[in-house]
Structure formats: C-alpha cells, structure tokens
Amino acid sequence: MSKTYRVERGSLHDKFQKARAKIQMFAGGYGNGKTTGAVVKALKLARDYPGSNGLVARSTYPKLSQTIRKEFNAWTPKNWQQRNVDSKDNLIQLTNGSIINFSHVQQTGKSAESSTSNLLSATYDWIVFDQIEDPEVTHKDFTDLLGRLRGQTPYNPEDDFDETMPSSGPRWFIIMCNPTRNWVYQKLVKPVHDLKNGIHNPDLMIDEETGEVMIEIFEGSTYDNAANLPADFITTLQSTYKGQMKDRFLNGEWGAYEGLVYPDYDPTIHMLDHDLIVNYYNELVRFGGATGNILETYDHGIAKPACYLFTFTDTVGNVFVMDGFYEKEQSISQLSKRIRQTRLLYGFGSGVISPGFMSADDFKIMADPSIFRRVSGDKMTVGKTTSGLFREEGLKMIRGNNDVINGIAKVQSYLYTDPYHRHPIHTDERGRPTLGAPRIFFSKDLTFIDQEIVDYYWKKDTSGEYEDMPMDRNDHAMDAIKYLLTDKPRVATFRPGSKPPSIPSEYRRWREAPDQTQHMRSPRHG
User: Fold this and answer.
1) Which residues share a beta bridge with 467?
2) What value does the mean pLDDT of the chain take?
3) Is residue 493 a contact partner of residue 418, using CB atoms and an 8 Å limit?
4) How many H helices and E strands in the chain?
5) Which of 208-238 are b and which e, b meaning 16 or more Cβ less than 10 Å from the residue's Cβ?
6) What is the pLDDT of residues 279-288, one digit of tens each?
7) 414-428 burial, b for 16+ CB within 10 Å, e for fewer?
8) Per residue in 394-403, pLDDT tens?
9) What is the pLDDT of residue 352?
C-alpha cells in the first residue's frame, strides 16, 4: 500500500478485516478509522478477485468527491493502476482487470429526495457505502443496492489463499456510518443490538436458507484507532466536544444527541406497528368512544413535499398519527384526491360521520398558514389562495398556529414519556395498561416522520450558540405535527412522588372484552 495502516491483533480493525458477513458495518466516533478500514478492505477485494466490478458510493456528488474518492486515490498503489487517476475520475481501473466505480445516490439538481438510479446500471461484486446515515439516503436505496450484488467473479489471489473467503463475488455490502437515529439505526443497528439482548426483532436480516444473521456491526470510539492517529488528534477532539457531543462523536454512542429539537423522541417508544394503531382505532369505534375525535393536518408543498396526516385521539387525550402522505410535485386536485381516499379508508366519506366519534370537526384540516395568502401560480389561479383551491375540491382548511416555539413546546410535552401515564395499548401480564408512556404515537408506516424528527435540530448563530429557532430544512412533517396540535392543550405531567392516576373506566371496559382486545396482550418489540 502507498500508506501505512496499523492493525493490532484482536483490535476492532483486526476483527473488521476478518469479517465475512454479507453486510459489514463499521460505525462509531470521528477518526476511528472507518473509512480507512473500508478502503483497505475494498482494495484487497479488487486485488484478490481479478476482473471484479466494485462500487464506492456516497449520498451526493460533492461528498463523494471530497471524501472517500480522495481516500481511494491516496491508498491505491500506483503500480496497481492501469492508468493514473485524479480526483475527478469516476473509476479506477486496475492492471488485473478490476474496476472500482464511484457514484452517488442523489441525482444532480434534485435535493429533496434521493434515487438510486445512478447506481443501478450494473452488477457488482462488492459495494462500499460511506456515511450511509446521510439524510439523502433512504432504506429503499439500501435494499435496491443489495439487489445489485450479483457478481460471480472467482476468488483468485496471487498468494496467501484464504479458505474463509467466498469462492466468488464476494457479494459483500460494506457500510460506514456515524451514530444516528434514522432508518440506519431502526432497520440495521437496533435489530442486532436486540439480538445481543435476547430480543427478537422482525427487522433482523437473516439468511432464509442458512438461518444465519446477515449483518455484522463493528462499533468503536475514536480511541480504538489511536495507533493510526496523530498524537494531538484525540486531545483536540476532547477539548472541542463536551457532553452529548462527546458521547456521540468520540465515544460513538448511538443515543447521544445534542441540539435536537425533540430529544425525547425514541422510535422504539413513539413508533407503533400500523396494525396496532388501526386495531385500537377500530376498538374505539366499536365501543363508542364518544369523546375521541379525528384530527387532520396539512403542510403545503409543490416543488417541496406536501405532508398530510390523518390522526385520531382517544378518550384520555392520546394522539395517534395513523396515516398520511409525503409527496412533491402533485397538483391540488391530486392532493385532494389522496386526502379523500385516506378519509374513506377509515370510514369518513363526504357527509359521513364515523360512529363512536364526535364530528370530525366538520372535516376541517389544520393547515399551513401560508396557503391562506393570495398567490399567482399561473394565469388560471391569479388572485386565488391555495386554501381556496382546496375549498373548490371540497376540502375545508383552517389556519394552523404558526407560533414555532410554542408549537414545539407543545409537541415536546406530548413526546415526553411520563412515568405516571398509562400506555393506551401495551399491557402487563395481568392485562392492565403499563405505566410510562408518551401522549403521541406514530404509525411505523409513516417513515418520513422518523426520518425528519431525528434530523430536526436547532439553528446555531455565528458564535456556535443555539438559537430559539429550528433549522429550516426537511421539516414538512414537523410543521404538520405542530399545526395538528393547534387546538390541543399543552400536557401537564404528574410530579415525582405523586400518586399515579387511577385506570380510566374506559380502559377497564375495553379490556373486559377479551375477544376484542386479544392483540393488546402481545408485547411489541422494536
């Protein structure tokens, strides 16, 4: 190699280089050697599988060109290369016929959503994806790329034949990431953590033929790579990062986040299986939950995504975000059609009131205040408001509260897990509601909420101090949730040491019908 990579026997890097799982993730703190370890491993694959086709990916072109592509150029020995390359090349071709391709997920000029079309034009023997937790990358991008690992290049090293290596391919997906709480944690990391704790998680990736776990995760702190770092590197980071920032970026801990608007959010607590929420909704309807209600909210967007949420409350004020959509480049007519379809799915047609609930607030939707201003979108709509266009489609929009700080404070109060609040769905071994729950829950099907909320941070001023204003990016669902709670009170919680509230009679009544509530006795994992 053209650079020095020190690997101590039994170290984190030693274990990573010896990994043979289908999916190999190297995660953790800054400077722990993730990128170097992955580059070295990929170059070994390109060397030992002559004629192989490998992919090196990043979320965007600038990130690709400024980071991992430079690392490959620096680490690839010149005598391995069929021709010299520079930082602008999209591939490295080796003298043994292997090709290392460089590409990015996000299409040029499209910043709101990602597409793997850049990466799906070939079959690969191996893939390296750097910083897969970047917000431009989705779970679908990951699964799409897994489907491209179909290479069958034979294993044919010049020397040091290793019987543990796959005979062809090797069809490995190598991932590098920093701790985050988006889909990477939910779909890849947490299932492995759950397995180590003896918990079954249906998202755990298992080979159906062999029954073996397909993913192996190597997590380490900055200190685990001390042998490859300058003497003052760790000292500098220690003086820079404190508290949660240190836990996350030096210690590589998944749960440490500083600057998040909603630090109380935990997908394992606030995200529920969609069927559980729907069953609970149907249960309210069957038992005549006369004080429950339907809530709807909408944040407008055309070039940017529009977000609509269909929500209900139960008899004690818990809020359940059950359904909705998050789409861009849709007309008012198309958006209105989607809203009506969602209403019909849950028994709310035109002029119909679902039994068991109060009126659906006359089907009014708490909406983005900006849609009530007159706009000039085209010649046919000059002078009309967006809310007026929706009214022509039969949808009544009501101005939501645009007081950002008060709205955030209200959402925070609903996200807080109150140790004295009884869970509306989970029960103990005696069938009684468990203590300790928030007052707002989201369907797991609404992945866009999870993706936004874990990347919703406060702004920083020029001095690096946090401001009382969130960053204005990818916040359409966050705005919709604030509008949703416009007419809801901020939650008051019980003080430590106070007596927990008694079980509401509605809870007791619902659980006296075991044939209707059997699903509530099944524990939820993940």
Assistant:
1) none
2) 80
3) yes
4) 18, 18
5) eeeeebebbbbbbbbbbbbebeeeeebeebe
6) 999 888 877 6
7) bbbbbeebbbbbbbe
8) 888 998 888 8
9) 45
Among the listed residues 28, 7, 44, the one whose alpha carbon sits nearest the alpha carbon of residue 126: 44
Residue 104 forms beta bridges with which residues?
A: 58
Distance between CA atoms of 168 and 156, rounded to whole angstroms?
Answer: 9
For 492, half-sphere exposure in the C-beta direction (CA atoms, 13 angstrom radius) is 2
CATH number assigned to the domain covering 267-521:
3.30.420.280
Give phi and psi for 309, each to the nearest 5: -130, 130
Q: Do the strands 306-313 and 293-299 form a parallel or antiparallel pair, or are they unpaired?
A: antiparallel
Q: Are 433 and 426 in contact (CB under 8 A)?
A: yes
Which residues, including other chains, have CB under 8 Å from residue 360's CB and lie 6 or more apart?
Answer: 293, 294, 296, 348, 353, 354
Nearest partner of 322 among 335, 340, 310, 313, judged by Cα: 310
Integer distance in angstroms from the first to the last C-alpha of the chain? 43
The verdict on domain 12-249 having CATH code 3.40.50.970 is no
**pLDDT class of 86 with cuts at 50, 70, 90:** low
Give per-residue pLDDT as tens, 480-512.
999 998 877 776 544 334 344 444 444 433 333
Please tell me which residue, 495 or 139, carries the higher pLDDT value. 139
CB atoms within 10 A of CB 169: 21
98 has a pLDDT exceeding 90: yes
CA atoms of 97 and 95, how far apart (whole Å): 5
pLDDT band at 380; cut points 50, 70, 90: very low
Which of the four pLDDT bands, split at 50, 70 and 90, describes residue 169?
Answer: very high
Residues 157 and 155: their CA atoms lie apart, in Å, by 6
In whole angstroms, what is the distance from residue 482 CA to residue 484 CA?
A: 5
Q: 186-209: per-residue pLDDT in tens? A: 789 889 988 887 888 889 999 989
3-state secondary structure of 363: helix
**Residue 155 CB partners (closer than 8 Å, separation 6+):** 48, 49, 165, 166, 167, 168, 170
Domain boundaries, the chain: 12-249, 267-521
Q: How confident is the model at residue 247 (pLDDT cuts 50, 70, 90)?
A: low
Instruction: Check pLDDT > 60 for residue 465.
Output: yes
CA–CA dist 107, 475 (Å, integer): 21
Nearest to 127 by CA among 65, 186, 170: 170
Write 244-251 long-range contacts (CB < 8 A, 24+): 248/29, 248/178, 248/179, 249/29, 249/30, 249/178, 249/222, 250/29, 250/30, 250/221, 250/222, 250/223, 251/29, 251/221, 251/222
CB count in 10 Å sphere of residue 76: 21
Residue 100 is encoded by which pair of tokens?
């290392």
Alpha helices in 100-154 (DSSP H): 139-146
Crossing angle between the packed helical segments 34-48 and 68-75, to the nearest 10 degrees: 50
Between 52 and 201, name the one with better pLDDT. Answer: 52
